Amino acid sequence: MKSLIMPSLQIGGIETPTPIVQGGMGVGISLAGLASAVANQGGIGVISSVGLGLLHPDASVSFEEANNNGLRTEIRRARAMTDGVLGVNIMVALADFDEQLKTAFEEEIDVVFLGAGLPVKMPTQISLTQLRSSNTKVAVIVSSARAAKLIFSVWSKKYKHVPDAVVVEGPKAGGHLGFAMEQIGNPDYALENILPPVLDVVAGYEAEFGKTIPVIAAGGIYTGADVHRFLKIGAAGVQMGTRFVGTEECDAADAFKQQYIDCTEDDLIIIKSPVGLPGRAINNDFLRDVKRGLRKPFECTWKCLKTCKLAESQYCVAQALANAREGFFEGGFAFAGANAHLVKKIVSVREVFESLAEEFRNAVLNEPELLLV
After folding, report:
1. How far apart are CA 112 and CA 93, in angstroms?
2. In angstroms, rounded to a whole number, what is the distance separating the alpha carbons of residues 195 and 176?
3. In angstroms, rounded to a whole number, what is the distance separating the alpha carbons of residues 72 and 64?
4. Tens of pLDDT, residues 153-188
């Protein structure tokens, strides 16, 4: 007997009616508006913490303080719009990672998603007691079983505690990717192949610590059929970003969303970001100029990413993404997942969830030898 309804997702004592996690998309693509709309539909709505100082500028404070003030503002705005489950995505590579994580804990966000680096060292401002007893759950984002094993091993030995959830992000994701260039198109690194070994690693720590640790699949998941497929492999939930860009509630400008509607599969390219990682983006004149070796002048008032190769950079990636978010593509570009070309129109978040539920139902019904009661 198989259910035609998507299952719930549990992370510690937190439960959502659906197994859908909305991916955190910076700079300013997923803020309070999108996150609250997803939470209201039974998913986990996620605010991206990166670049909030650009979106909430304050000349009276440092850029670092503006970032954290912006994060508090977005969390509180989202809380005012939903009683659902909310998360914050924080990049480990951020120069102010410690402060942002501290802020998220202080604001009692439901879940923090830690990616773009290996979170093997927790900020000194967060005590072990806080880590173990806080209502805020910690999910780590990895791209391999090796990374998961390293994080869990360090946490187990150092903190006598392990993360509450794991997101396994495959190479079809948008934005910065945790893979070498040659791995992105290699089938060995496809999400369906890297997910099972992570499940094996986590299972061992579930037994050791006596708790359920959900593993969430991410990267290239777009339809309800995709959700069904990865739940069958063993994931407890899925993370989706690209599909939520094509919604009325997405916090980006309409011109940004139009880039998704207009792009073709051939427009989706892999670039080398100034932060030293490959990334998937929608090709445009800005990126074509960069590929030709042209430098886009910029002033760096604060090195926001630890890994940014400032002296070698042709442009500021944070400013380029902030420009694109406002629809100014002469000065930037849009990150996007491998399925961005499937976005054909702007719909509500509610319609996305209804479509996912129907697609999931059809995928289950189309399975062979299905017995219903």
Report:
1. 15
2. 19
3. 13
4. 999 998 889 999 999 999 999 998 989 899 999 999
* Angular region, 197: left φ>0, alpha ψ -120 to 50, beta rest: alpha
**CB atoms near residue 303 (< 10 Å):** 11
Supply φ then ψ for residue 326, to 5 degrees: -90, 0
Looking at residue 371, its pLDDT comes to: 46
CA distance 309 to 316: 10
Handedness of CA 71, 328, 304, 66 (dihedral sign): negative
The residue ranges of every structural domain in the chain are 9-252+344-365, 255-331
Integer Cα distance of 300 and 310 in angstroms = 8
Give the helix/strand (H/E) hosting 281: strand 278-282
d(CA 65, CA 63): 5
The pLDDT tens digits of the residues spanning 58-91 come to 767 777 788 889 999 999 999 999 999 999 999 8
- Nearest-Å Rg of the Cα atoms of the chain is 20
CA distance 365 to 359: 10
Q: What is the mean pLDDT of residues 325-344?
A: 97
Exposed, middle or buried: residue 31 (CB in 10 Å: 0-12, 13-18, 19+)?
A: buried
Amino acid at 167: V
To the nearest 10°, report the CA torsion of 209, 211, 212, 213: -50
Q: For 363, which DSSP code?
A: H
Tokens representing 342?
A: 């499937």
**DSSP E strand stretches across the chain:** 9-11, 14-16, 20-22, 44-48, 85-91, 111-115, 137-142, 165-169, 175-176, 215-218, 237-240, 268-272, 278-282
* 0.85 exceeded by pTM: yes
C-alpha dihedral over 358, 361, 363, 368, to 10 degrees? -150
Q: Please report, for residues 240, 345, 357, the alpha-carbon distance to residue 224 in angstroms, rounded to integers and kept in the order given.
A: 11, 18, 6
- What homologous superfamily does CATH list for 9-252+344-365? Aldolase class I (3.20.20.70)
Q: Are 188 and 214 in contact (CB under 8 A)?
A: no
> Which of 248, 206, 221, 188 lies closest to 34 in space, CA to CA?
248
- Beta pairing partners, 44: 21, 85
